[in-house]
Design goal:
The complex is a heterodimer of chains A (about 240) and B (about 250). Chain A has about 240 residues and is of the alpha/beta class. Chain A contains nine helices and ten strands. The longest helix of chain A has 16 residues. The radius of gyration of chain A is 18 Å and the shape is globular. Chain B has about 250 residues and is mostly helical. Chain B has a two-stranded antiparallel sheet with strand order 1-2. The chains are: A alpha/beta (about 240), B mainly alpha (about 250).
Amino acid sequence: MFRDDTPALELRGLTKRYDDGTLALEDFNLQIHSGAFFGLLGPNGAGKTTLISAVCNLLRVTAGEVLVFGQPHDTLEARSWVGLAEQDINLDRFLTVRETLEYHGGYFGMQEDEIEQRAEEMIQAFGLTSKRDVRAPKLSGGQRRRLLLARALMHRPRLVILDEPTAGVDFELRQELWDYIRRLHAEGTTILLTTHYLDEAELLCEEIALIRGGHLIARDSAEGLREHFGVNRLEDVYVKAMAS
Amino acid sequence: MTGLVWLCKRETLRVSKLWTQTVLAPVVSSMLFILVFGLSLGGRIKQVGDVDYEVFIVPGLITMGMVQAAFANNASTIFQARFDRYINDVLSAPMKPWQMTFGYTIGGIVRALAIGLSLLVLAVALVDVPIERPFELALAISLGLLLFASLGLVVGIYAETWDHTSFIQNIVILPLTFVGGVFYSVDVLPSPWEELSHFNPVFYLVNAVRFGFLGQSDVSVWLSLGVTAALAIPAYAWAQHLFTTGKRLKS
């Protein structure tokens, strides 16, 4: 649907040094083509969440450039193209399920009639119909996770960033979320997924990047990575890459 | 502009959802001040200048209720949004920094106006307080709310715990309000307290609002409005600077 030649995401020399001196990303370069399903793997502290936060304007970049579909990431246009489901549940405690989606749509510039219709669509797609008027703190963990994903998709972003979306969820919900994400990708949405689950990355992602200590270690399809590292399983690739 | 409208709606919704805490409680407590200090103590003090004491204290009490609400509302809404990290939904949205600053400022102003109007209606019914200079009154209230709503945002952005926001409220704003001439005219204070009162910014705001209601105050209304504006504009600019640079909002 959205496929074109401009990369969905381009990082040029992205560097982030936090105020305490920690260097989370150093001269990081990455290009993800439009319509890709791209996985980002790495241990805790590798720089995955920092990278995502930089793309979504949630941190102050130290140096480098971030382009979303060719536009600088801090432009209003680029912001409207990105949908983010963060790793931690960060739902507005004062809003109900319906309001969470509606307000998000409003923040992202959707029109009133479109907001209502899309919110209803999301509520149904994520099985939250009976909870539409329940406030976020009263939802179960799984329902909150679904709402988080629904919120990220509410404004029909061209680039969806999922930061460990299935962390801590049960098997059934994980399958449900996978199905939804796959459908989304099939419709042409570019997806950037970070995960600790190697099976998840292998199953879903067309291409995987391994990062450690703020640097890109390797990038290829799961098959390509196995060949490159001369092993049979992605787990072994991961172990080798992180040890090198 | 759609994002700004929805952020304003969200901040107003928060005030209305919590109306017993955000509006009713401050109105009740300010009314108690009017009843206790005005109607009971007022029987002994009689008049300040040529104004009945129970009428004299109403402008100051309305000011006190409004500025405290504007500050507390914005400090808590922004701190909570940071603490629970749902502020990210706004920070990542296609909104300009000025829209974020304005949107987050609105909640405190709406809450303060709801309190102020409720108190005004009750005060008119109870002690028949006049409004002699509506233009100056509107200007004084606008500047006062801008000042304290902006300060609330700044404190909520810098705060690392809930205690920090309540510390500023209880240790700085509340005492300054109490000694800002809400309950008395500073003319009656002995030296050096009268002179020291002129270093209290709330004194000027209370006097500007009092001038709007009663047509008289301890100092020139234009000096009062000037001092309040000289504080309100940098306070708002400070809040705007934080949203523009992302300092304390983005790591």
